[in-house]
Amino acid sequence: MTQLLTPGDGPGPPTGAEAAGSPLQTVAPGDVFAALDTSPRGLGAADAVTRRDRYGPNELPRAGRRGVWRQLAAQFTDLFAIVLLVASAITFLAYALQQPPDAGTFRLAVAILAVVVLNASIGFAQEYSAERTAQSLQAMVPHTCRVLRDGERREVPARELVPGDVVVLEAGDAVSADCRLVEAHEVSVNNAALTGESDAVGRTGDAEAAGPLLEARNCVFMGTDVVAGTAKAVVFATGPATEFGRIFRLASAAPGQKTPLQLQVASMARRVAGVALAIGAALFAVRVPTGQPFVETFVFALGVMVALVPEGLPATLSVSLAIGVRRMARRHALVKKLLAVEALGSTTVVCTDKTGTLTQAEMTVTQVWAGGASHPVSGVGYAPVGEVTDPLAVRELLRAAALCSNARLVPPLAADQSGSRAGHRSWRVLGDTTEGALLVAAEKAGIDPAAEEDAAPRVAENPFDSVRKMMSTVHRSRDSGTYHAYVKGAPQELLARCTGIDWKGERRALTDELRAEVVAANDELASQGLRVLAAAWRPVSGSDVTQDEAESGLTLLGLLGMLDPPRPEVSAAVDACRQAGIRIVMVTGDHPLTAEAVARRVDIVRQAAPTVVTGASLDSMDDDALDGLLAGPAELLLCRVSPEHKMRVVTAFQRRGEVVAVTGDGANDAPALKHADIGVAMGASGTDVAREAAVMVLLDDSFASIATAVRLGRSVYQNIRKFLIYLFSHNIAELVPILAATFVGFPLVPITAVQILAIDLGSDVLPALALGAEPPEPDVMDRPPRSRRERLFSAGVMGRILFLGGIQALGVCVVFFWHIHAAGIPYSRFTEDDAVYREAITMVQAGIVVSQFFNALAVRTERQSVFRIGLLSNPWLLAAGCFGIGLMAAISYLPALQAVFHTAPLAAADWAVLAGFGALLLAAEETRKWWLRSHRPGARKGAGR
């Protein structure tokens, strides 16, 4: 551990728990004040101000966020955007050099620039709105706390705490800084947000042996909660210097991971841009020696480059991902980054926390054993909704357990009291969660703990301690004036103090045979992964009875088995992930036995002996040994792990080429959430730190949403491939006629750059978006995850692009040169204003638009006939295709648009010819699918595979 700086020793706040050369937890309570340069009366007001100026406020740094203008500017750094910006700038320059200036060149430059602005606006709007949903980190730290200043108790803002402050803690308080306890009365704290351990842990003010800081029983830490008892403590670390701050620094230092789609889109952009520039330069070099005007030739080559760049792709990709975001939002999953939607589809490993993720983080009594019989208890969580079978048989047992408890059950707000699940979740326990579970069980049996306490008020208490492992209370009956002691604790320790047993309402001597039966019942409950408590009672002489007398000669009432129940939907979600080829690894700070019991309940573990590894074992492994462990058995549980362990495991999986999703709800999960390919935080029960680090937040805390999100993510990837095939196939139809005209010596282009932009952004975007909204295919979760190395442009995808694009290119070349040759005019005499030429380029543009209508239908499936899934099953696609054809008709017939695009009106026969070519494309694709189904029945399904 690092050395604790006492005030005046250094420039910053304390950074550890050592004082005067010794670990602070080893210092006697009375010496803690001197070690931290304070007193039992607390700091003086002036001293507090001085220290606050020196050490800074007790708060974590706000999450660094880019300004709005920087976020907007980042949208223009995409390679497609850069290429188009350069193309627009060069086109403006060409316009300036032309004599006389050509209005068409100016319109082209403006159109290209508008494309970039449109794409950037869509991407910025989507990501900005999602990012605004992230909540502030500061909400994790309590707003106020109680401190002693000049000997007086005051309530001050938590951000004003400084090292040396003496704080007062009570049950229900959230701890505002790292503190050393100097007084502790029956104190226990919940460290789940920091360590992941679900059970409350006891705390003491006594000195302890040196050891890891987080294991010190006389220290409490920022971000944890006091569940029972009262205490005084001295602050020794604030803000970033706390253990909570250390985890925050780990999360902040973890670089954001690029998703597989980001990497593939970037690679695709580089390749497409390179090909476009190369072909444009080659055509420029070919046409200049032929005597063509330099500027016109340059604009021509630029038009070819524009034809190869899919201008509509960034906007289509962003909006398609946004569709996935909205679909997930309807399933209570908030995605803060668009590309994270697709990343889930490629997930191969899910590293999941236990408490609050797989379980409900609410201890629940599920079995009660009394009088030789077991009585199940229905209902889960802290809502007293459910029942105990045969409540009369267990009434005395549950009454004793409720009386011997210090917790309090807090009902929901009146506005939230309903029979809904949401209402149930708002019940909470003030105090120890185990005792809260006992109160809930008592209420399910028809017992009112408050009424019982009023009828038999407590007059004495012997608190629980870890040595004797039990707690006892003494009560005086208002009716009879008699006194009774009620005891609860660990079954073995309590059983040793019992001489009798309550057997169906009668007291019997606890014979060896009955004792063996109790032990067997305890073992049976424990084998189910339940935490078992025993309860007993005895009459006593009065309130001044000694502890030994109150806890001896007892009559055993029975056993209570409880657990933190798994979420009911988790098992089905685990099965769905397993079916999809996704490996689930539990990574938790909890005890191995507890972790294994929960893992078995949710089907993460099915084998008799899964591999269980603790954090201590991970410390002894080098990277090679860790890689070997992760490559080993599929059923792996990592327990008692720290945030550093979780991050190391995530990195090791990624080193092996896995796409890793991490789920969690505590601050201890934040570094791993940030470092993962996709971090998934719980929205309702999760800490703000976890939600800040994650890129996806499950608003309903349902692990089942993971499987749903994976299904949607895979669908998004399939749909992206569908509209990539759709978009790039028509790029071939735009390019081939230009190349053909060049090589046959035709002086003009068969399609202009402005026409290309009209197709890319006017006719093609809406059908591409409709393809992006295709529902998931039925077998999407029956396929293994795709490899991180798998490319968007696989051989199958390229083959379909060339096949479909080749058919379109053939059709438009035929109609163009048929029109030109039918006129009987030599090539050299054609001008841009020639009516035949304008009809021909209109046929080319219309031919691409019409064939794209049929192409959109063709790419909906890879192997299955589109007629089998139904031509009308995606009405948005039909509507989008009709819109594109309608826009093309407007460009052909409206004089204003004819002037912009240099088009001419088409005859009905022309449209019939174009429709025939489109139908030919669909027929050819249906023939290819039939051949695949007939000759390759075992081939993998999926777009492009």
UniProtKB/TrEMBL annotation:
Reactions catalysed according to its record: ATP + H2O = ADP + phosphate + H(+)
Highest taxon in the source lineage: Bacteria
Disordered: annotated span: 1-23
Chain ranges passing through the membrane: 79-98, 104-125, 268-286, 298-323, 723-746, 752-771, 792-820, 840-859, 871-894, 906-924
Residue ranges annotated for the Cation-transporting P-type ATPase N-terminal domain, each copy included: 23-96
Membrane topology of the entry: Multi-pass membrane protein
Location(s) in or outside the cell: Cell membrane
Signal peptide interval: none
UniProt KW keywords: ATP-binding, Cell membrane, Membrane, Nucleotide-binding, Translocase, Transmembrane, Transmembrane helix
Coiled coil: none
Keyword Chaperone found: no
NCBIfam families: ATPase_P-type
UniProt family annotation: Belongs to the cation transport ATPase (P-type) (TC 3.A.3) family. Type IIA subfamily.
Protein name: Cation-transporting P-type ATPase
UniProt source species: Streptomyces bugieae
